[in-house]
Amino acid sequence: MSIRSRSLSGGLLFTLLLGLLVGIVPATSAQAADARDFNPGNLITDAQFFDGQAMSAAEVQSFLNGKVAKCQSGYTCLKDFTMNTVTRPADAGKCAAYDGRANETAAQIIARVGQACGISQKAILVLLEKEQGLVTLSNPSASRYTIATGYACPDTSACDAKYFGFYNQVYMAALQFKRYQANPTYWGHIAGRVNNIRLHPNASCGTTPVFIQNQATAGLYNYTPYQPNQAALNNLYGTGDSCSSYGNRNFWRMYTDWFGASTDPSALVRTTSNSTVYLISDTRKHVVSDMTLLNNLAPLGNVSYVDQSYLDKFTTAQPAGRIMRAASGAMFFFDNGVKFSMSSCVIVEDFAGACNPAGYVQLTDDQVAKFTTGPALTSVVGLSSGQRFYIKSSQRREVADAASQSQAGIPAGFTMLSDSAISGLALGAPIVRDSLVVQNRNTSALSYVYGSSRYPVSEATLNSLKNNLKPYGSLSNDSINMLTANSTVFSGRVRVGGSGPTQLLTSDGRVEWAADSGAGSLDSVPATAQLVADYPLQGTVPAGAAVKGASSPVISRAADGQIRGYDGWSGFVRLNGSSQFVTLPDKVFTRIKTGPAQLTVGALYRTAADPNVYLIDGAGTKVLLNSFDPAAAAGITQSVTFVSIADLNAYKVAAAPLAYGYICGANSFVAAGGTLVPVTDRNQFPVGYTTLDPSTCAVLTKAKNPAPKFIRTGDGRIYLLDAGRKRAVDSMDRFNALGGPAVGFLNVSFDFARLIPDGPLA
């Protein structure tokens, strides 16, 4: 039967009370043990437990002094305890000889026994505390010293008096742990295998399997053969339930509270005085700069508290990042406990690493193995937020959709990562295929994208264009803002590649608009040929065509990227040259910009704000009238129409006011008597000439015969036109002599006649 401590069963009530009264010494919050770190298979490492040089006698004494400030009167505290010790011979393979001395202090006994047997003085101190509370009690009874370590105190019977006494207890406990070590398979709990360890002396509480990782842990279970249940761990500094035991829990907890981690420190460590966390690997330490990265290193364990001296053993390397290297040279990117292999140095560099020690964290194979193996890392990553990014040259470029990824020549597929995995990479311009509508993930606003520019667009517009522009891509606000904002609103008016005729898109197809040259061209945006081809051609509108909407009564002229409604049927016929017009679907017609009115050719107009009167000449010119006489002479006698400033200002002013002479194509005329009379030599009639648009000329009455060489004014005077001068004919006889009756004369106004210089009498 193994020799065990009297931690439960026969001394159950005693031990329980001891744990409550003296075994629970609250640690500072910075050093307090965390039940989550408790590992029943690794209570303490062999290196720490079997370290006989862990503390000197002076260090033990200082430690004891720090635990009890003042001993109660009538009691001897451990810090003050002394006794004579006896000499013990060496026990081969276990303990060296012990040379007995008079009046040895407890600290000296603890230190020397630890040195002789190779048992940590720290472990002995914890054993004394968890068994009898001797380290912290200010009023320990003599009986506590008698069975100080609980040696030879089995759960089922009384303690063996042969081993009473403080020195006996300390020495025999140390020797017993060495016996466990010397014959590891002889005892009930064996390292390196699964052991069914009881939860309580009461067999009905059951057992659970534990893989014991080392000899020190096996020895503790042989000494006290119970493990804590979850209830005991849930209340680490108190009691659990009726099936809870506390001996090995208290050993681990007290050791951790007093001396730090009883197991090998986690790969993640910090000191109690500095919150900086380091990742330890081999001989290097790397600062873990933020909580997100720390959480992603969770497979390496919880953060352990260590002394500064422990940290100082490691060389400070670059801060930890997301890229790690195994001893084999394999490179990995890690995220959420998963490691993703990196196939080349190119992808390592793309993710802001490097294939040199400054560009990765070197981990041990054991550390790397703690991460779950995932697929190979690709250059495109998908995030839980739904975003997708292309990673290149330490930049992350958001991908609007799978088609954008394909058209950019990027291999299909992606690796799923957490949102924080690539947040440290600089944001680059997004990858968006031409003619894609993208939705802002943050604001839901829509933009049409072509090249590096974005154009605002409404949901209503897109809904009116069938589904050819759906589904939308999506980008974050930051990515969208990296595209150049264009003020032109996408309204379904596009040009292939930004040039050529404008295409007006509707839910039924498209109309090709050839009438969009000049400064007033349609507000269009560039588009791909494929997008345009997705809409079947329904017709073409040439420049100057007469058009109307299917449900509109107004006929308009299509030119300069806009429609200008005719102000009357005659105006339409005069400029159009016929009564033919094109009827457009309302969906097309309503998408065209509406311009000022198309005024009637050959009619007179003015505004209320300006007394000047103008003759409308063709589609875009107005001619100033300095007098109504030139217009009346040409037969333009209708009343003046008042229009808006905007309508009249849409016409450019002719270079000169309206004259009595008119040029229509290759022909010249003078205005007289409401008719345009042909002239063969403008020098004969130096009255000034206005060149008119053919549409204006077409509405004016023209005489068949050319103008004669005689003119007659309203006072009856007749003049002979000769070499650009007018020569008065002083009598009818003279008129007859000059051949007047054969050719006749042209009746003109006084203003007309005054424009011709006077010459000598004819």
UniProtKB/TrEMBL annotation:
Signal sequence annotation: 1-32
Keywords annotated in UniProt: Signal
Protein name: Hemagglutinin
